[in-house]
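Human: I would love a firmer grasp of how sequence relates to backbone shape in proteins. Could you go through the record with me and say what the backbone is doing? Here is the record:
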Amino acid sequence: MYGIIGAAVVTAAMSLLVIKRLRLRSPDGQPLVLEPKTVGSGVRYLAGGSIFGLGWALTGACPGPLVALGRGGRAGHAGNDSERARRHVDLRTAAPEAAALKG
């Protein structure tokens, strides 16, 4: 897990270095500017991290994938659900028919 996060940090750092050194520009010719971030007192990070950690502790899963799991692994729009329902094969009712076909 830390290897993935570490690779992302290294990739981002190298990309920012290339952008600064080559003075790259956006497609419309504007210089790419990285605005300095204001950290503040850190209260919002503490609150957000606490909520995230509490959610992880209560559910036993990372909150991001948990949202995807809550949809049953379906990432489609709600409009597609009715189409899926029509094509859905209920294995409880199809199994006796399949057994009868085998002979």
Notes: The first helix runs from residue 2 to 22.
